[in-house]
């Protein structure tokens, strides 16, 4: 029977977000569960990809860019020939600003360091543009039980000039603190980078990646399949770090998102 004869409902979790969050979009239909006809949706000018869960609902994880304006944003969902318009509220949020002083060589890069940093940025971008099959298993977990030392979205003004936005979360940890994979996936990068030091990237599928920086040791290999909670490395202070810690980043569809918002989702 054609999909357009079936009714469908749409759920948002949560119904309100702040810039940098991830939200869950669920489409529930009364169609034949065996059907391979997936709904389509669009948010902020981008196509949304769905997967089918064990209850035969269609699920998508949707990133909200940190520069998204605070207002109600439209999400267009189509199933067969039927279309629904829903709205999600992006609330205003003021991220922290920190003024820090560092040695000049940690702020202003020389020509060779700048070339290396730009080359590595291009390499990372090439990974984050990939879209593989979903590999994660249920809810995401924190990589360590140690306290958070710096939250997502902090605006750093270094030496009164250079400005950067913290695109992840920093966890306190002595050198050697075990670091766990936040979910299942495959290691797509294991390398020593200029900014991140010893860095691992795990591809969880559907454009979702977790990034672990400043490790003192690796405990996995490139292309290795990883299980949620597996020890993948040890915390350290390699790269441009002023002390031992873990920087955890999450990329979804090429967008930096707040890991904390991902951990809160019931998947």
Based on the structure, what is the oligomeric state of the protein chains?
Answer: single chain
Tally the structural domains: 2
Fourth-tier CATH superfamily name of the largest domain = Glucose Permease (Domain IIA)
Return residue spans where pLDDT drops below 50 for at least 5 consecutive residues: 1-5
Q: What's the tally of helices? A: 2
The geometry reads as: globular
Structural class: mainly beta
Mean pLDDT: 91
Major sheet characteristics: 8 strands, antiparallel
CATH architecture of the largest domain: Distorted Sandwich
Provide the gyration radius in Å. Answer: 20 Å
Beta content:
35-45%
Helix content: under 10%
Distance between the termini: 30 Å
What is the CATH level 1 assignment of the largest domain?
Answer: Mainly Beta
CATH level 3 topology of the largest domain? Glucose Permease (Domain IIA)
Order of helices and strands: EEEEEEEEEEHEEEEEEEEEEEEEH
Annotation, overall tally of beta strands: 23
Strand and helix map with partners:
Blueprint: E1 8-13, E2 16-17, E3 22-29, E4 40-43, E5 46-48, E6 51-52, E7 58-63, E8 72-79, E9 82-90, E10 97-100, H1 111-128, E11 148-150, E12 155-158, E13 162-165, E14 168-172, E15 178-180, E16 185-193, E17 197-205, E18 208-215, E19 217-218, E20 225-226, E21 231-234, E22 245-252, E23 255-257, H2 259-263
Parallel strand pairs: 2-9, 10-12
Antiparallel strand pairs: 1-3, 3-7, 4-5, 4-8, 6-7, 8-9, 11-14, 12-13, 14-22, 15-21, 16-17, 16-20, 17-18, 18-22, 19-21, 22-23
